[in-house]
What does this fold into?
Amino acid sequence: MEHLIIAPILIPAFAGMLLLLEVRERQPLRRLTGLVSALALIPVAVGLYLRAAGGDILVYQLGDWAAPFGIVLVLDKLSALMVLLTSLLALPALIYASRADDKRGANFHALFQLQLMGINGAFLTGDLFNLFVFFEVLLIASYGLALHGRGPARVKAGIHYVVLNLIGSALFLVALGLVYGTTGTLNMADFAVKVRELDGGALELARIAGLLMWVVFGLKAALFPLYFWLPATYANATAGVAALFAIMTKVGVYAIARVQGLAFLDGPLAGLGRDALWVLALLTLLLAAIGVLGARRLGEMVAYLVVMSVGTLMAGLSWGSPEATGAMLYYLIHSTLVCGGLFLLADLVARGRGKLGDQLVAGPAPAGRSGLAALFFLGAIAVIGLPPLSGFMGKVALLQTVPSPLYWLFLLGGGLLALVGMSRAGSTLFWRATGDGRARRLDRPRLAATVLLLSAAPALAIWGEPVLEATVATAAQWAQPGLYIEAVLGGGA
Amino acid sequence: MNLAILVLLPFLGAALPPLAERLRAPRTALALSAALMPALALALLIGPAGQVFEGRTVQDALSWMPSLGLTLAFRLDGLALLFALLVLGIGLLVILYARYYLSANEKAGRFYAFLLLFMGAMLGVVTSDNLLLLVLFWELTSLSSFLLIGFWSHQSAARKGARMALTVTGMGGLALLAGVLLIGQVVGSYSLDQALASGDLIRASGLYPLILVLVLLGIFTKSAQFPFHFWLPHAMAAPTPVSAYLHSATMVKAGVFLLARFYPMLAGTDLWFDLVTLAGMATLLWGAAAALFQHDLKGLLAYSTISHLGLITLLFGLNTELAAVAAVFHIINHATFKASLFMAAGIIDHETGTRDMRRINGLWKYMPYTAVLAMVASAAMAGVPLLNGFLSKEMFFAETLQSSRLGAMSWVLPLGATLGGVFSVAYSARFIHDVFFNGEPVNLPKFPPHEPPRYMKVPVEILVALCVAVGVLPAITVSGLLAVAGSATLGGELPEYHLSIWHGFNVPLLMSVVALVGGVAVYSLRRWLFAQYDRLPAINANLIFEGRVQALARAATALGNTLRNGSLQSYAAWLLALVALVLLVHLSPAAIDGTRGLLPLDGVALLAGAMLVVAALITAVLHRHRVTAIMSVSVVGLVVSLTFVRLSAPDLALTQLSVEVVTVLLLMLAMYFLPVRTRMESGALRVSRDLLLSVVIGGGVGLMAFAMMTSDFQTISGYFLDNAKPGGGGTNVVNVILVDFRGFDTFGEITVLGIAAMGIYALLRDLDLLSARSDSVGRPWARDAHPLVLVTISRPLLPLALLISVYIFLRGHNLPGGGFIAGLITSVALLLQYVASGVEWVHRRMPGDYHPVVAVGLLLAGVTGLGSWFFGHPFLTSTFDHVHWPLVGEFELASAMLFDTGVFLTVVGATLLMLANLGKLSLLDDKKGGA
Amino acid sequence: MEAMVAIMIAVLVGTGVYLVLRARTFPVILGITLLSYGVNLFVFISGRLALDQAPIVGRGPATDPLPQALVLTAIVIGFAMTAFLVVLALRGQGETGTDHVDGDADEGGQR
It folds into this structure.
């Protein structure tokens, strides 16, 4: 039994609790606590990833109760990958927020840590109800973070975000009731076994349970027609929070992949809702690309790019082949880090433009115009999917593994719309700008955090092969639910 | 010799000029720093070039992403060598030229950096031996040219031109990518070598037409072929060295390079002939005719470039080997004379301050030397004998005569070719005559013009000398290079051909004569032609493009706003409609197929059920009456608690009841600040839509509930009943599940509670509700005081309540109760003090900040969980022992109790943190209101 | 009994859905509350109904304890969420000056 498996949940959990104890609002102490925790998560996640990369699936039985009776955490390649990705995103996002944004409201650092706890828990848990609990943890923390700071726009967007997700939580509970009421279990692996034995009315109910889960996860992932809350929420959140939120949609994608991979790859409910997800994913891709083109703020544009990546990913996932899923995971890593970086960049730009903020209208040149312009150029290339950065590799991998003309048309056409939108935005912000913006200096740590995230694009291109090999291997393991089920129900590790 | 390094050099070199600029290097040193790497690359090219001339193909590959089929594979054959020479050679000349062209206050370092990036990308395109790598460099040329065209970013025309070029070529690049991926699918590899050898396979494939169209889209957009030609003239907003580079030898030539590169793969079919020839012909004529009417010097050259690219494309389309060789030859010739012409135009612009040919006249007098150079280059462009343009044009004319694909219509080709020649001569004549003769200059911004600096003319001289040398002595100068390039293009043996000035009296010569004479004639008619042209509506592709993009963006914004209309009701309706759809499609009464026996319904239960239904409906109907709604909701909650009691769930009943109390308190507090009544504002349509959703979802969930309740199932629960006592040390199985079997859920759950409290605290901290004393419609808000009765009852109740919660907490492991319920009871008791006596009264007696309480609770739970690590067990493993306690009796003292204490503290802390702060708010309100 | 519980759930979910779709924060809060009641009951009955079989060891036949534990968790989480929503509604009122869920001024007409 390796306690390290639970560390990605406990480290931020305890950090969050300690932060709560710190009542005197000593900001440096709070920052230090948060940053140490975020920093510590990286070696832990790397260690776990290396452990999982060997091919073993490790099971951590909480309370020493065997599955399916107790709750288990499961470390396979997929969960390890997601935890690693989260830790890589979190640190720069927190560095950025720790410059000043964290002072704009109460309890920022505690919320941030508990948000990480929720995300990591959702990735690691092998129990459906526990997944619900961690969803709630990450949601309630995200409510707090999304509303961090002031302003009517933030509150408006926050109300939408909260109410929709409360409805989503209710739906999740209905699905869980159906899961338990038909299969008599909550453990994911056990559910996967039992659902294959259902027939008659129970099978029908289990089908609805699965579809309701798709709706709930689709809401988290921001699929059409459930993405409408996202642009306003993300665009209005403080930059570090928005950057961290880049992983939140991926929690939805992950949850669909996880449940689908275990329970619905074969058996009586094989391919459950896959066609619908495919269609919705393509629509998401197209509408988000249109959103990118029509965006009037840079933050909104990046938010739509997040939605676009979700469409891209979900289409790849619902294609159903392990190869496509492998390509999808590569693209997931790329889009999470790059979109996170772009949120930070949008904020850097906005800071240098005074009252105009990140609105896409010509105005004064932001501080450090050349450097920001270069970063924007690189980030745009990466996120649009132009060579030589990671987006290109990801798109090529997806195009190769999803040989559907419709997908090609949407993915490439969407890329073109994004190209038009982003080139307009860049031209407006950096070329049409007046003055040379040299008077003010960029804040170094903020810039460093942004560069750190955006450097994922060249890094994932240069070391594309090992990363792609890893994601393909991850998908191959994902496509063999038997391994996971055996590891969880076969007596534990 | 490593080809990869060769390609890498310009990219590395791109770092030097900005560095030099930062070191405040003088302009010449800056230019030298830029020239360093290309010069090195050119020198390094000599070695492999020798091998190429011996007929070998130099190849070099590094692994990159083999999973994708993307390798860093490079090849140097004749075609690649030719282009590499053009790219590097003309590139160096352009750097030299730019040294004098750029003014001192321009960011030359950045300029050279972009130029070198572009050079590297171009070098990559022509030497790629891997299809994906080729696409990669291809897109890089688009991106770097975007930066170059937009270099003068303060000019609107430059920005728009750059974006238009990027959009059009970017679109082509995406099409090319799709085409290349399909080729890879057919061939089974992205190796260019294999693809070139698989021409028959590709042409026989059912995907061939699609592949061809996609690849040609890439080529035509890049090479500005009709109907994608419109971006090129606007790319002239770039500094002239860029135009000289991009639009003579490189960027636009990438398209025709690809025609040559893919020739063995894709050419030879009727479809190829039709598409390529047609596009080429249309471009040739359109460009040539339009060039004549440009008053802008660079505009004329731009359209002339379009026209010549059409000519080259047309030649490739003819599907004959000789035509392909002629095309390659014309690529060389066009690169030399067009680069020199652009440079000459730049000099003129530089010296006169304008490019308008209606004002620049008679420059012969002022800059005769430049005039000579420009005139020779123009003559080459027109195809005058003894110059290089003549040779390839002659071959072109001859080849158009050979084609029989069009059957009886075959005469169209030579006719079109001749017509193109006529216009070509006409605009060349205009370039010479208008600029250097044709009277005196008109109102020049800079007057009088001078010859440019000595070294600014050197690149022009070199290029013009090449035009003449090739034109006079083709066999010595160019035939070797042409031979290797030609055979590499064809992928095999070269056809018989002779590069000579004199082929005897034949039809091509006649066509040349017609073109020359006709061209001069057309030029002499120019005034009348211009007058006709001016009557045509003016078309500015920049404005049209920009207009379209803006219209598209507006439409996108509008569509986005329609879908994402900012209305929560609409978003929620989408979400719920999706749920309703799932239920409607997949749920049928047939799902009720269980055989489980039903429980009897008694009168009390029926009454309670009816109460719940009525209360819920009242809440829905009368939700605008706040007090009524809260009361009916609490009735609902009460009945739900009773239901739990009746249905064997005492723990739930207790929890529900205590939560109910707190929730109602919360709602009351909320009501205090929210408007008491709201007007009816949903239309009939909205209401009926919502009713429909409610009925479908409510009915569906009810149906599913009934289906579940009436069918038997297998469950894991037996394990909990069996193991609660022996394994968990408690008899209240629900509590043992909560603190032991599924303690991790509870850990998460109290975290949620804690976070909610924190979030609420953060929300409330600097909230000012006073400004919203009444809302915009002026509805009055509820006001309330602390009722005396409550005060007198609540204070003595507190110790009692605390005692009860201790009892409930302690017995929780065995009987209904536990940390949750105890925590909630404690909170309710404390909250009652707030409500009854006011915040100030309580705060004098209680700690003000509940954050640490939450934290200690969570930590206690967490540390208890961690404790099991020291015994070698996983997180949250419990241990227990039997203890006899007075009053409570014999029971097991489990480590889970400690965990449960954490739960208790968290619940108390969180609830109070939430509600006490809300209470404070009302206090604040009272004070301000009273003041 | 089963039919009556099913009807109760249906009514709670139905009224909850209807109220959640209203334009003001207060009915939305009520809707979420009713929806939670309904959904909690739904999860509860997934263990099937039983009379007088509280899951206490040593007291004869016991009903399924697991859904009860789940619902207990769900109730507390639901309470936390509702509380947050209530305060958020207040915050909305404070920052936008209206209790409309979209934070718009009341002159918007029908919504």
